[in-house]
Amino acid sequence: MSPTAASLAIPASPRVHALLQRLHAASAAQEHTLSQSWFYLKRLIAFHLFSTTWAAAADDHMRDKFVALEEDKCHFVYLLARSSGALNIVEAGTSFGVSTIYPALAVGQNVADQKARGASVSGRVVATEKEPTKAARAREHWAEAGDEIAGVIDLREGDLLETLKRDDMPEQVDFLLLDIWTPMALPTLKIVKPRLKKGAIVLADNTKMARALYKEYLDYLHDPANGFKTTEVPYSGGLQMSVYLPDESS
């Protein structure tokens, strides 16, 4: 059997690959419907005409939607986390937990690598989700993934602007993944920023498709005083990759 893009990028068991293939297919089927495309278009129109960023009806619409990162972006997340040796990752916007599996695999493997070299380390993925039914589905998927991610994910239900302020956060965060509704991106970054290590990676999804909604976030990244070097990676919809490199002399 010829290797697939997933098997080339992600060392994982056949069970995990089968699970991810099924979940990505279900997510893509939802995203490619006319109703979902119309939903996103309406949100952009409402923002441009009325400065409306969200509504209760939008929560109702999205409650059963995966809104998972596309598979190629997930491979990128995994490879960045592995190559950087990330031990503590924050994922803002877990939904059904598909994209969470990738950093969890990376963290588990990074911890195993360091322990094999005699280091005493631990690591985790702090994931956030405000919708209880989505959190429950995410836990089901992680249980199906099994031992390869068991014990790695710390899921925090509720308002992430509160759950990410808790005292039991990792002292140092190596990687921040922002896959949430755009107005939450900058507030989340500001909460996590004091814990970011020098060289930490920050990814935000759909920064090209929703550029107008990301204006404050992108303006913040582009201000040299805030310590980020940033570029847009040309995945579908845009993926903003930033590295935290503060000027220690300032």
UniProtKB/TrEMBL annotation:
- Give the keywords, sorted: Methyltransferase, Transferase
Q: Name one GO biological process term.
A: methylation
What this protein is called in its record is S-adenosyl-L-methionine-dependent methyltransferase
Q: Which SUPFAM superfamilies match?
A: S-adenosyl-L-methionine-dependent methyltransferases
Keyword Transit peptide annotated: no
State the organism's lineage: Eukaryota, Fungi, Dikarya, Ascomycota, Pezizomycotina
In terms of domain of life, where is this protein from?
Eukaryota
> Molecular function terms in GO for this entry?
methyltransferase activity
Q: Which InterPro entries match?
A: SAM-dependent_MTases_sf
Q: Tell me the Pfam families matching this sequence.
A: Methyltransf_24
